[in-house]
Known about the structure:
With 836 residues, the protein is an alpha+beta fold. It is built from 15 helices and 46 strands.
Amino acid sequence: MFEIDKAAIDNVFRDPVTDNKFPILRFSLKDDRSGATLKQATIDTGTKKQIVAEQTGIALDGDFTPLGHYDVDIVAEDNFGQIAKKHVSFRTGRMGMPWEGKWLTDPDYAFAPKTSPVPFVFRRVFKIGKPLKKAMVTATALGIYLLKINGNRVGSDYFTPGFTSYKHTLQYNLYDITDLLEERNEIVAIVGGGWAAGRFTYSSKSHITCDRQAFLAEIFLQYTDGTAEKIVTDESWQLSRGGEYRFADFYDGEIYDGAAKDRKTVWRKAGIYKIGFSPRLTICNCPVRAHENMMVKESFQAANGKEHIYDFGQNFAGVVKLKIKGRKGQKIVVRHAEILTSGDLNVKSLRTAKATAVYICRDGEQEYSPTMTYMGFRYISISGISPDDIEVSAVALYSDMEETGGFECSESLLNKLQSNIAWSAKSNFVDIPTDCPQRDERMGWTGDISVFARTACFNFDVSAFAEKWLRDLRSEQGKGGGFPLVVPKQGIAAPTVATACWGDCSILVTWAEYLARGDKSLLEHMYPAMQKFLKAVAFWARLSGPGKYRKHIWKWLFQFGDWCAPEGNIGDWMKRGRWIATAYYANSCAIVSRIASLLGKKEDAQRYAVLSSEIAEAYRKVFTDEKGNLKNEFQTGYVLPLAFGMTKGEETAIMARNLNRLVEQKNWHLTTGFTGTPYILFALADNGYTDTAYRLLLQESAPSWLHCIKSGATTTWEEWTIDDRKEGNIPSFNHYAYGAVGDFLYRRVAGIEPIEGGYKRFAVKPVLGGGLTYARAFIVTPFGKAESAWQIHDGIFKLTVCVPVSCECEITLPNGEKHVVASGLYEYECKEEVSK
Length: 836
Ligand code: BGC
């Protein structure tokens, strides 16, 4: 059967909304005939028909106008003449239509620094006097807002309009509200401080974008008689500070007064706000939404005797959902934590975040789930109510992205690792890629996503999410070419300067996304920013000294170095900055050279390739004896040149041997930090030390991935061991950076390696070892599902490979046998024993 499987518009599968004049369509295919490719497809947008030969990057042409709803019919034909059809639809946003509404605020309100404001409530009552055809609202806020019409929540998105680099870009949302309207209507917007006005960053900044929160909306009413009406935020709207939400803050939580409904609200006239800057207003197409429902696995009385503890069995980002039998005024307090110590919540990994939800009851049965905050937690404790009077569950919140990958193998601890990696991604893809979801941080640290991007792109389709963030990254690039250490910069005082790995995000994240989805337009958009960044690096490197080689050693101005390495302290990690930065510099130049060729910029491609090899040469001359021995040895110092292809000839073997020796000296443990760990297994396995790579992967004592799992981890940790008895703060239990090992699971254990963007061409070449008897990974590519599944039984290795329609795969068996195949399902076997 030939079928059109999935179709996305602007990389969104579910309810796409676009502001683009030419929205971008992509669709994947399923075909049970081998060798199937798309011959052509007819795309009918109602007003225009296009004939295309591609499945991705199709710019839809259809004279689309604002606030429309469009149907697209796709008819695809494969090379065997089979026909498949699919119908998709999308909505258009404002498409640049100017806003007539005015920003509303409470001009009399001021709140103390280092805290969050009381949520404002804005309202407008309006009547509908004739039959309604359609009603829509577009809304945004400085802060975060929640809309209700006649008491019903509008949409199901969280933290709208989302977190962006507000001074450059502010998102708005579009909702169809036709079914919510009656004759007399009340629209209410609850607006909290969020990231823009509320407390944010580890130094508890507040008022970062504005003095107080503000709201802007326009309601579009279309009547069946062909007339239309518009209601916009203006002086006719009312304001109150006495709503149900008494307090809302990302770190500290929420106070919700369920009894407020029974009181009469005192409304005042809303004030008009001049926000003082003019961001580009653009549609939000990747909102945070509710995903998995989380069930309580176990509950018991806390050792302190005052609280009841509930264990969800999984660390995640989200909010609780409570069903309560309460009495008026009864106060229920819900605290959150990642771990327990001696039968009580241990909140030391939250640092100053209070992560507490307080619910004040009215009489009777009621439900509560926070909507203006989220927490990173596995455990909660509840006080103020008998366990018999409350039903507890929770929901995981993260940006709307499809799960597109899976990995499993014969070692159950590695399967748990895969699950932990995916959960840390979900927990940290909350509108922006954050470092952690629990403590007083949750910021867009660029280094974390730099190293995790490849793994993220296997497990999820992050295209819409990544594009949004990369747009902010571009906006926030400094004049000198560097990037802020966190994006959106929002409250971080550190200067915007080029820094290795963290700043390389413009290249590493874009490249990861390109390989996964094959979208060259992203490369085009990002290319100038990458070039500017490399120019900045060249400037800082030149300060290392005169001469042919020194000028490529990148040390200044500031480097994180071997951040979070298991040995030493921050000072020691940073001291390794110049080795690490220089290697990242060579790698980034090599990637940008490939990007330049893809974009047809031959001279640039040549220039960056030459620069990359000059930097590699500088690394060799300055840091090594030119034979492959570092003058100052440390694991990351060998890992990076090996993994980044900076070595040549005999030097490669010597470096690999040295790395292997350093690992052996640590009794088969890694000592690499954030920057080296994602690459150490590749450096070993690709250079003759597969057994050592597997030994590290399967190592069960610290520091190691499986040690965390053996210690009960359900997500990946910021550090490898965590002493929960330690006084003061402890590190995060939900950081995705070390989950970057997922890249090795897909690309080496299962052996799926993209060669061309979007897996148009890819390789399958499993690397066996570690005593594994089977492994399987699949990736939903933009063309369809790619899969590699192998097993070894009775001395026979069997490999099954699935190649998506229109793609080509180069398969290599462990005995060296090669096959190049078009789409289809293939099986091969050869003699092979299980290797330890
Ligand atoms: C974050 C890291 C981040 C680092 C950089 C930490 O506080 O949690 O993940 O990359 O700071 O310094």
